[in-house]
Structures are given as structure tokens and as C-alpha cells.
Amino acid sequence: MSGKTVLILGSYAPSLVHFRGELIAAIAQRGHRVVAAAPQISAEIAEQLRDRGAEPRELSLVNASLNPFAMLQSFRDVRRLIRDVGPDVLIAYTINFPISP
């Protein structure tokens, strides 16, 4: 497939479909690979993402904890996902995402 790889990270799986579904479909329709990742993606949400042209990925994310070890593990999981997918574009939306410069 020609085009870019777009990784969309969210903190709540249903929001990928309900709030980013049209964006995901539009990107995929333009010939780009879309990978959508969030914690606890149900089979129903995964199917809806695939219907829009995205590849669903489960992401272990703890974004409401004060435990520094949990946040570190989330950071490692996100970093591992980014390395695995190799996105050209990253769209991350959440209040507290464990990615910092």
C-alpha cells in the first residue's frame, strides 16, 4: 500500500469510533494505513475500526494513576507500539498521555 502510516492513540476505545471514526475512514480512503490503539478494545469496537479501514491495537495505558511505575510501564508500551508500527504521523488525544519530550 502506498501512502503514509498514521497511528492514532486514544485513552478510551469507544472514542476511536464515536469521535474519530470519520477521521479514520477519511485517512484510510486516501490510501494511508491507519492503526488505532487504545486500552481494552472490545471485539465490537475492533470490528467497527476495521470497517473504517483501521487496524485496531490493544494498548496498556494507565493515565489516571499517581503510581510512577504504572506510568513508566505505559510509557514503555506506547514506545514499543510506536517502534512496531513506525508511523509517519502520530495523533494522540487524551488528557494525560505518557509521552514527553
Which key features would you list for this structure?
Glycosyltransferase subfamily 4-like N-terminal domain-containing protein; globular; 101 residues; Glyco_trans_4-like_N; Rossmann fold; four-stranded parallel β-sheet; alpha/beta; single chain; 4 strands; 4 helices
Counting structural domains, the number is 1
What number is the mean pLDDT? 88
Major sheet summary line: 4 strands, parallel
Strands of the largest sheet, in order across it?
Answer: 3-2-1-4
Number of helices: 4
Shape: globular
Overall radius of gyration: 13 Å
Q: Which structural class fits the helix and strand makeup?
A: alpha/beta
In the CATH scheme, the class would be Alpha Beta
Following the backbone from N to C, one meets helices and strands in this order, namely EHHEHEHE
Protein name: Glycosyltransferase subfamily 4-like N-terminal domain-containing protein
Pfam family, one: Glyco_trans_4_4
InterPro entries: Glyco_trans_4-like_N (IPR028098)
Organism: Sphingomonas daechungensis
Characterize the structure shown.
By secondary structure, the chain is of the alpha/beta class. The protein has one domain (about 5-95): Rossmann fold (3-Layer(aba) Sandwich). Helix content is about 40%, strand content about 20%. It has helices at about 15-20, 20-30, 45-50, 70-85; strands at about 5-10, 35-40, 55-60, 90-95. A four-stranded parallel β-sheet has the order 3-2-1-4. Strand 2, helix 3 and strand 3 form a beta-alpha-beta unit. The model has no long low-confidence stretch (mean pLDDT about 90).
